[in-house]
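ok so for the tutorial part 2 we go from a plain amino acid sequence to predicted C-alpha coordinates. step 1 is just haveing the sequence, like this:
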Amino acid sequence: MELLDAVCVITDFDGQWMSVEYKKGKNTEQKLIQVSSLLSIQYIKEGK
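step 2 — the prediction. this is what the C-alpha coordinates look like for a chain of 48 residues:
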Protein backbone atom coordinates (compact mmCIF):
# COMPACT_ATOMS: atom_id res chain seq x y z
CA MET A 1 0.00 0.00 0.00
CA GLU A 2 2.95 2.38 0.30
CA LEU A 3 2.86 2.90 -3.48
CA LEU A 4 -0.77 4.02 -3.54
CA ASP A 5 -0.86 7.32 -5.48
CA ALA A 6 2.94 7.28 -5.85
CA VAL A 7 4.71 8.42 -9.00
CA CYS A 8 6.93 5.52 -10.05
CA VAL A 9 9.41 4.96 -12.85
CA ILE A 10 9.43 1.47 -14.38
CA THR A 11 13.09 0.47 -14.59
CA ASP A 12 12.66 -3.15 -15.69
CA PHE A 13 9.79 -5.30 -16.92
CA ASP A 14 9.74 -9.08 -17.20
CA GLY A 15 6.29 -10.47 -18.04
CA GLN A 16 4.48 -10.76 -14.70
CA TRP A 17 6.89 -8.57 -12.69
CA MET A 18 8.21 -5.02 -12.89
CA SER A 19 10.87 -3.15 -11.00
CA VAL A 20 9.94 0.43 -10.11
CA GLU A 21 11.70 3.38 -8.50
CA TYR A 22 9.87 5.97 -6.43
CA LYS A 23 10.65 8.81 -4.04
CA LYS A 24 10.16 8.23 -0.33
CA GLY A 25 11.06 11.41 1.47
CA LYS A 26 14.50 12.45 0.22
CA ASN A 27 15.42 8.89 -0.79
CA THR A 28 14.78 6.98 -4.00
CA GLU A 29 13.67 3.43 -3.32
CA GLN A 30 13.23 0.44 -5.60
CA LYS A 31 10.58 -2.27 -5.38
CA LEU A 32 9.66 -5.39 -7.35
CA ILE A 33 5.89 -5.66 -7.86
CA GLN A 34 3.53 -8.02 -9.67
CA VAL A 35 1.81 -6.53 -12.69
CA SER A 36 -1.46 -8.17 -11.58
CA SER A 37 -1.40 -6.05 -8.39
CA LEU A 38 -1.74 -2.76 -10.32
CA LEU A 39 -5.01 -0.91 -9.87
CA SER A 40 -4.26 1.64 -12.59
CA ILE A 41 -1.40 3.11 -14.58
CA GLN A 42 -0.93 6.55 -16.12
CA TYR A 43 1.82 7.44 -18.58
CA ILE A 44 3.50 10.81 -18.08
CA LYS A 45 6.00 12.31 -20.52
CA GLU A 46 9.48 12.92 -19.13
CA GLY A 47 10.09 16.45 -17.91
CA LYS A 48 6.51 17.08 -16.80
